Amino acid sequence: MKPLLASRPVLWFLFLFNLVVAAAAPFVADGAQAVLTAVGMGVVSMGAGVSLFRTRRKPARRTRAAVRRT
Question: What angle separates helix 8-28 from helix 31-54, to the nearest 10 degrees?
Fold first, then answer.
């Protein structure tokens, strides 16, 4: 289950879906339920966003041999 949750498409889904729900919660629910829903979904969304940021693809490093060939 851990590799599935760490895959980039799943992280993007978690990030975007939870962000939308967090933004829409105050308009759908009232009072403490809206606040707690927005905060909870926001935390999950930010967690997925941080994971996306940490696992972003880094550009390939050019080795000295590759630089000499060009």
Answer: 160
Structure tokens at 16: 């975007």
Predicted TM-score (pTM) above 0.85: no
Q: Is the dihedral of CA 37, 42, 48, 51 positive or negative?
A: negative
What are the pLDDT digits (tens) for 4-52?
Answer: 878 899 999 999 999 999 999 999 999 999 999 999 999 999 999 999 9
The CA angle 49-57-14, to the nearest 5 degrees, is 25
Three-state SS string over 24-56 comes to HHHHHCCHHHHHHHHHHHHHHHHHHHHHHHHCC
Residues whose CB falls within 8 Å of the CB of residue 18, separated by 6 or more in sequence, listed in order: 41, 42, 44, 45, 48
